Amino acid sequence: MSIIEKCDGLPLAVKVIGGLLRQRNTRQSDWKNVLNDSTWLVSQMPEDLNYAIYLSYQDLHHDLKSCFLHYALLPKSTIFSHDCIIAMWISEGFIHGNSQDFEVLGREYYDQLIARNLLEPVPRFVDQGVCNMHDVIRSFAQYLARDEAMIAHKSEAGLINYINPQNVFRISLKTKGSESNEHGWSSLQAHISLRTLILVGGIKINPDDSVIFSMFADSTYRRWKFRCIVRILVPTQTLECIDLSNCKSLVKLPGGVGRLHQLRYLSLFDSGINNIPKGLGGLTNLRILKGFPAHVEGDCCSLEELGSLNQLMVLHIHGHGLENVSSSSFAIKARLGEKVHLSFLYLECTSRRGGAQRLVKHEEQQETEKVLDELCRPPCLENLKIQGYLSQLLPRWMTSTAMASLGSLRNLAMEDLPYCAELPDGLFQLPSLELLQIESAPAIKRVGPEFLIPHHHELPGGSDFKN
């Protein structure tokens, strides 16, 4: 009760201190140490910042402090998945240990911030994959990071032209509407110490602004994170994290993308890029690949280039691709069944939502089935999503007789399956299954009795699924 008094009755302060206390033993002496901590008496902080948050921050180890402050750079109300955030932490050098385990250690850091109530998971995302940060906590973190980071969101975006470029290691920039004309790439060229750049929204690019990348290549710059770039520029070979999600106007990657040998994270999700230059197979350090376009068109990489990417943990093969793969032999060469680290697989064919429904010929369905049949499930698969699948039968590795091989599967989502007529009978024989989501599957007329009788697995919202 004395600790609660210290929190001045503020619910957020109590919640954060509760997150700190849960890290301690329940001995009275440990709790008294928190009560008597000198941090409660710190006077140099602005009055609107909370001492309970400061106490929790001081209790973090050094690397976790850096991760916490970095999270506050992310623009509010913009979704960043946990694997993207962790990739940025890794590229900044906040995660130490064996480089093979960086993503695992990063997830542990992420979970610690949640356990301490410094991050709040968004309920609609599986596995706490997306979090929010309370405004008060965000203000506190941004205050502490003020000497090394420039945060310019919306109305403050024009301030980027007035900061001292020698002191800034990180810039987070979010623009909207006419604000994008207030500054551009040219205003970033003086920032020779820049390590992370987060861009959300439009930015002005002049024809000669590509020199920014060659300048960074010769400086202390090593890492990069950017979103919503309106046209492609040539990146440096030291990049570890590239996120081009939602870059609708971006239609092409540079031919040298295969030389980015340090790259661990690449997202082209929901961008305008429908093909990748050959050479992707050289990115053997890649852990996360989102938005990979599978179809072959001219001098572009195909599914077979995935074969050498044995470190993959997350793979998303995106729409306008799988049903256009000309031969299942490309899928065989992807060697998904040999990727022992791959735990998240997202297979997306062309979505029919929001557009004209086209009839799919039986031959097309058979070819799509053959392709997915050869995209054999990885041995340690935990998360599987299939979307926009235009065939009647699910891949053979999802049939009833093969379901036992999916023993590690925890989350299964199937969405927009217009022709699929039945579900595998063995779904509820999966020992680890926690979440099953089936949406927009109108051809399924009945489900098996295992959906109707009680057992230890529970479906969100009961046994119904949406048509």
TrEMBL record:
Occurrences of domain R13L1/DRL21-like LRR repeat region (ranges): 303-440
GO biological process, alphabetically ordered: defense response to bacterium; innate immune response-activating signaling pathway; plant-type hypersensitive response
Swiss-Prot/TrEMBL keywords: Plant defense, Repeat
InterPro entries recorded: Disease_R_plants, LRR_dom_sf, LRR_R13L1-DRL21, P-loop_NTPase, WH-like_DNA-bd_sf, WHD_DRP
Occurrences of domain Disease resistance protein winged helix (ranges): 74-141
Annotated GO MF terms: ADP binding
Protein's UniProt name: NB-ARC domain-containing protein
Protein species of origin: Miscanthus lutarioriparius
